[in-house]
């Protein structure tokens, strides 16, 4: 009996904690996971990450534009300068990613796409955090 209660308690905790973590996931991440679960081929996984990167890029641009609505001219100029530097970094890092993984092994194709998506995601979330901090003032 005690063993059954312990197992049941652990199961409830596991279900509750997974529900909590699921709420923390961004909708783009959830969509990407669903996509990845549908197609486990190399091309399918690469396409899922590529599509996620495109969505993160739209999210990035959305928050970049929103930031312009809450910044003064001086801060807009700094944000623009920062974004242009980030674009240079992104492009160089994308090249670096292509060079780091072997080109003759197809298993690295989705890894490269995922790494590129992560870079864009990080910037999108950074711009979102800036905007949310500023709009609350």
Reconstruct the topology from this structure.
Blueprint: H1 2-24, H2 27-38, H3 42-68, H4 73-100, H5 108-135
Short description:
This protein is mainly alpha-helical and 137 residues long.
Plain-language structure description:
The chain is an all-alpha fold. The chain has helices at about 1-25, 25-40, 40-70, 75-100, 110-135. The protein is built from 5 helices and no strands. The radius of gyration is 20 Å and the shape is flat. Mean pLDDT is about 85; it is low at about 5-20.
Brief descriptors of the model:
single chain; 137 residues; mainly alpha; Substrate Binding Domain Of Dnak, Chain:A, Domain 2; 5 helices; 86% helix; flat
CATH class: Mainly Alpha
Rg for CA atoms: 20 Å
Category by helix and strand content: mainly alpha
Domain unit count = 1
Mean pLDDT: 86
N- and C-termini, Cα separation: 55 Å
Query: Can you give the helix content as a percent range?
Result: over 70%
Strand content: under 5%
> Got a strand count?
0
**CATH-derived architecture:** Up-down Bundle
Tally of separate helices: 5
Shape: flat
**H/E topology pattern:** HHHHH
Low-pLDDT segments? 4-20
């Amino acid at each position: 009996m005690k063993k059954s209660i312990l197992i049941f308690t652990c199961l409830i905790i596991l279900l509750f904690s997974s529900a909590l973590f699921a709420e923390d996931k961004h909708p783009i991440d959830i969509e990407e996971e669903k996509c990845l679960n549908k197609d486990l081929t190399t091309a399918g996984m690469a396409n899922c990450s590529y599509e996620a990167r495109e969505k993160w890029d739209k999210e990035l641009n959305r928050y970049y534009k929103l930031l312009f609505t809450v910044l003064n001219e001086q801060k807009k100029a700094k944000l623009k300068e920062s974004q242009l530097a980030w674009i240079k970094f992104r492009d160089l890092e994308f090249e670096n990613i292509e060079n780091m993984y072997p080109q003759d092994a197809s298993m690295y194709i989705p890894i490269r796409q995922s790494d590129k998506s992560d870079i864009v995601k990080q910037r999108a979330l950074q711009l979102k955090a800036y905007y949310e901090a500023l709009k609350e003032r």
